[in-house]
Specification:
The protein is an alpha+beta fold. The protein has helices at about 10-50, 60-70; strands at about 85, 90-95, 100-105, 110-115, 115-120.
Amino acid sequence: MRSNGERGEGRLGSIIGLVVFAAALLAAWNTLPLFIADYTFADKLHELARMNRYQHNDERIMDLIMKEAGKQRIDVYLGRDGCKILTRETSRTIDCKYQRQVEILPGWKHTFRFSPSADQPLI
């Protein structure tokens, strides 16, 4: 039996849950593009690392890396000195490091450090 003042509603809990859900959605909206760009860039590094060493020397590979960084809009954070290329007789290693600062929620910034790399046999 309920008394007249009780209706079984939980307004405050619903409002708090809605605010938390909206904050999580905003945080995902602000951070997911960073991780997608890094994943796509790392995938391209694997492709570049497999290129023929006689047709694509280290300087040409670096140019292609910078071109891909521009496509992913991380060239602002990643300069030519941010990537190291080591070409051996049968394989090539590419190591890059950069960091990006993003405002996850209003008033809350975080610096993400990315280090995509590739170690692939040469074709």
